[in-house]
Design brief:
heterodimer; A: 64 residues; mainly beta; Ubiquitin-like (UB roll); B: 256 residues; alpha/beta; three-stranded parallel sheet; 8 helices; 10 strands
Chain lengths: 64, 256
């Protein structure tokens, strides 16, 4: 299981790009943090999620 | 007046109104940009809703400078993490530091804010710290590399106006950076007063978001901020400590 935005998701074995394609996210509107490190966009295709990974998908919201 | 620019971190702005997008609605952003003339809009950084395609960035007109904030941060480290994520979203180097340990009054933690400012300024961010108006803390923020200082007028969202007036005046008089009054400004007259005092800009959200007629209130804020700025540049007339001073001629009376 991969912990994505605080929830356990059965996404191990998928690349970050593949996982994102299963969501409604527009990849240019988000930033990804994998296990506490920012993941550059060019690595979305080649980074494969593994059991125990923690993924944060972050975007701008109204605030301030 | 046309050459009167607000310069923050080397960027020039003509408007002295900053919109806090807050509980944003398209209507608020539209009114703030069109009717209040906002050129800077703050945003929060949060977990994305992965079921939602819509994004606030789709509603912000081009040419508006985005000012991500670090709201939600309780320590300098958390603020630094949020600032780096914001920059990775690819919308520039501006960041408004907001660090709060207190969730009842939402007061900023000046000490943690100074630490975060130092780290982020070294990383090349244009750092705009939100702070409780304290001269010593403001001086530390200057030394830490802040681009502006953003003291609160009264508690966030309260619309109570310039409760910290005298302390903001001290910052304006003593600190050689733009002082942007943030939080608590509830009506145009308060924005105007802060500008007359020499504030460089006003940031507001709730005052517009909770107003009866959003576009009309946005335009009222624009006029108040412009009027206050003009009055400051013109130099206010003096105030007598006592007595009166005639403004009519003291000769040629119709008697004797």
């Amino acid at each position: 299981m991969v912990k994505i935005n605080g929830e356990h998701v059965n996404a191990a074995g998928q690349s970050v790009s593949q996982y994102l394609a299963s969501t409604a996210c527009n990849p240019i509107r988000i930033v990804i943090e994998l296990n506490g490190e920012i993941l550059p966009r060019e690595k979305y295709d080649t980074t494969v999620l593994a059991d125990g990974d923690q993924l944060e998908i972050i975007s701008f919201m109204g605030g301030g | 007046m046309n050459n009167d620019k607000l310069i923050i971190g080397g960027h020039e702005f003509h408007s002295r109104f900053i919109l806090g997008s807050g509980k944003y609605s398209l209507k608020l952003i539209e009114a703030a940009v069109k009717d209040a003339g906002a050129e800077i809009i703050t945003l929060a950084v949060r977990r994305a809703n992965t079921q939602e395609k819509e994004n606030i960035l789709d509603y912000i007109p081009k040419g508006v400078t985005l000012l991500p904030n670090t709201s939600g941060a309780r320590t300098a480290e958390e603020a630094v993490r949020i600032a780096r994520l914001a920059r990775a979203l690819g919308c520039g180097d501006f960041v408004k530091i907001e660090i709060m340990r207190d969730s009842k009054y939402l007061l900023p933690d000046n000490q943690e804010t100074i630490r975060a400012t130092e780290i982020l300024a070294k990383e090349g961010f244009v750092v705009m710290p939100y702070m409780y108006p304290d001269l010593n803390a403001a001086r530390d923020l200057v030394n830490a590399g802040a681009a502006t200082i953003m003291p609160l007028a009264s508690p966030i969202g309260s619309n109570k106006g310039l409760a910290t007036r005298d302390f903001i005046q001290i910052l304006i008089d003593e600190i050689d950076l733009p002082i942007i009054v943030d939080a608590g400004i509830g009506k145009p007259s308060q924005a105007c007063e802060a500008m007359e005092m020499g504030a460089a800009a006003i940031m507001a959200n709730t005052a517009l978001a909770t107003a009866g007629d959003l576009p009309m209130m946005s335009s009222a804020f624009r006029q108040a901020i412009e009027a206050g700025r003009k009055a400051y540049l013109a130099g206010l007339g003096r105030v007598l400590t006592r007595g009166a001073s005639a403004s009519d001629p003291l000769t040629g009376f119709l008697r004797d």
